[in-house]
């Protein structure tokens, strides 16, 4: 869900743009945000913690015209946006997959949870910032069970293929669904209308083919035994692999939810068509309990180097005034040197309007800024970008990953709310994902498909030629995060094939 580059790069996020309406914007969390047309755009999100209900509001922050403004000033400058739905179903949805395409104009929103057995008519929709309008790209339709409404699945853009989905959760499901040798009912909570698995294999959405946008990578080898959800994913062009971080899964008949460790990562090799695992070196993120007091020590931020596969613990220091400690927030990369952290919940579980501005021009020395100066406007006194602290260091070297946060220990069972605990406070979702921009023109169109859905038959999977590794490509810079949860008393993923030892 995001777009940003240190050199020429792409990342995954959600964005909205449009006609601005002057109106007070409420604090919110779980928004889908991104940077398009020189503005930060945010879609949806929830404003109440008593009853979580996402809305369809689209808001924008015009940081170009607000250049030189402080973080405190910017938080009051959000405005609502009016868009043209063009018949697309943009009803409220929780936990959708959100990806910003590298054309710099288009956001993809796929799936999402809708309560009350009210299935979405438009599962996959796109928003275009130039036309300020939506388009419908049909639903994921799997033979013979029909449309599957999946959410909280990791998603990442793969050049020349589209958006890669895997795992996740499903709602409004077909109860006749079957998998050979698997007791599907053990994964279902009919009362909550949640099935604890989503995409069964690596699935792609490519809107360049509007008449048939959905496809499945054929003949996948060594498919993982367990399907995760709440994971994040990154495509690394140098190794031509997709990396999956964090998340959790279920191992029926046990109702206990199991958390993946950060000792390794599940991977998919786009050249070989093979699932595997990459072990990591060093001391990575550990399990921990507690709330904001836990974050006073340095054991909550780590960087991962994908050349050496080495975890490195970092030390973060910042002022007490900005709300550094937050959860369920959005990270928005801007230009090549700035990262905005917007909305989320504060340490006492209250939605916040406050925002953070990070200088990421030097990945070995990321600093917290008091104000934002857009390079597209005339030069100003550089003192306006002085950091709060000269010691506010986030990462060193060739950094491609970040895991930060602290969480209260918990066990989940089927049917229990898997949302963030009221005491969970992490500074994770600097979950931007950088991948090299393709060398070809994208040619994306926002024209909607004539079909409402595309049928996927797992017995006759078709896919285009796989991406080939280019040895000249440079390793992308990636900042990625996930919630770190206590797993001291539950089983952990250890084997490279994704099985439990």
TrEMBL record:
<keyword id="KW-0677">Repeat</keyword>
<feature type="signal peptide">
    <location>
        <begin position="1"/>
        <end position="22"/>
    </location>
</feature>
<protein>
    <recommendedName>
        <fullName>Galactose oxidase</fullName>
    </recommendedName>
</protein>
<keyword id="KW-0732">Signal</keyword>
<dbReference type="InterPro" id="IPR015915">
    <property type="entry name" value="Kelch-typ_b-propeller"/>
</dbReference>
<dbReference type="InterPro" id="IPR011043">
    <property type="entry name" value="Gal_Oxase/kelch_b-propeller"/>
</dbReference>
<dbReference type="InterPro" id="IPR037293">
    <property type="entry name" value="Gal_Oxidase_central_sf"/>
</dbReference>
<keyword id="KW-0880">Kelch repeat</keyword>
């Amino acid at each position: 869900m995001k777009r940003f580059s240190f050199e020429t790069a792409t990342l995954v996020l959600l964005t909205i743009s449009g006609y601005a309406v002057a109106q007070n914007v409420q604090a919110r969390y779980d928004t889908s945000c991104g940077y398009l047309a020189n503005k930060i755009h945010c879609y949806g999100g929830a404003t109440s913690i008593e009853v979580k209900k996402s809305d369809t509001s689209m808001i924008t922050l015009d940081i170009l015209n607000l250049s030189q403004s402080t973080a405190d000033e910017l938080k009051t400058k959000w405005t609502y946006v009016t868009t043209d739905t063009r018949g697309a179903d943009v009803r409220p949805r929780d936990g959708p997959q959100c990806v910003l395409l590298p054309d710099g104009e288009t956001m993809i929103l796929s799936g999402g949870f809708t309560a009350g057995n009210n299935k979405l008519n438009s599962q996959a929709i796109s928003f275009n910032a130039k036309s300020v309008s939506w388009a419908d790209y049909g639903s994921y339709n799997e033979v013979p069970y029909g449309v599957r409404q999946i959410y909280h699945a990791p998603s990442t853009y793969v050049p020349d293929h589209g958006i890669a989905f895997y795992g996740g959760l499903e709602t409004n499901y077909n109860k006749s669904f079957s998998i050979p040798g698997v007791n599907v009912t053990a994964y279902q909570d009919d009362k909550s209308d949640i099935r604890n698995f989503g995409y069964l294999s690596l699935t792609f959405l490519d809107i360049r083919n509007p008449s048939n946008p959905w496809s499945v990578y054929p003949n996948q080898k060594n498919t993982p035994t367990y399907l995760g959800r709440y994971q994040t994913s990154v495509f690394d062009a140098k190794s031509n692999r997709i990396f999956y971080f964090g998340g959790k899964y279920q191992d029926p008949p046990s109702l206990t939810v199991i958390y993946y460790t950060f000792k390794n990562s599940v991977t998919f090799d786009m050249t070989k068509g093979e699932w595997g695992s990459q072990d990591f070196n060093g001391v990575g993120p550990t399990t921990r309990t507690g709330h904001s007091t836990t974050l006073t020590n340095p054991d909550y931020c780590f960087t991962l180097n994908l050349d050496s596969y080495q975890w490195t613990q970092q030390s973060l220091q910042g002022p007490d005034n900005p709300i550094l400690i937050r959860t369920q927030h959005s990270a928005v990369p801007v230009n090549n040197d700035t990262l905005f952290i917007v909305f989320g919940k504060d340490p006492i579980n209250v939605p916040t309007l406050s925002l953070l501005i990070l200088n990421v021009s030097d990945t070995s020395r990321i600093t917290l800024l008091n104000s934002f100066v857009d390079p597209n406007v005339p030069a100003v006194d550089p003192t306006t970008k002085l950091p709060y602290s000269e010691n506010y260091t986030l990462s060193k070297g060739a950094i491609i990953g970040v895991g930060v946060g602290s969480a209260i220990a918990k066990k989940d069972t089927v049917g229990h709310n898997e949302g963030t605990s009221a005491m969970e406070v992490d500074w994770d979702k600097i979950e931007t994902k950088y991948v090299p921009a393709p060398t070809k023109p994208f040619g994306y169109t926002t024209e909607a498909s004539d079909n409402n859905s595309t049928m996927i038959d797992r017995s006759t999977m078709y896919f285009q030629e796989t991406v080939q590794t280019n040895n000249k490509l440079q390793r992308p810079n990636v900042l990625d995060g996930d919630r770190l949860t206590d797993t001291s008393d539950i089983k952990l993923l250890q084997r490279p094939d994704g099985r439990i030892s």
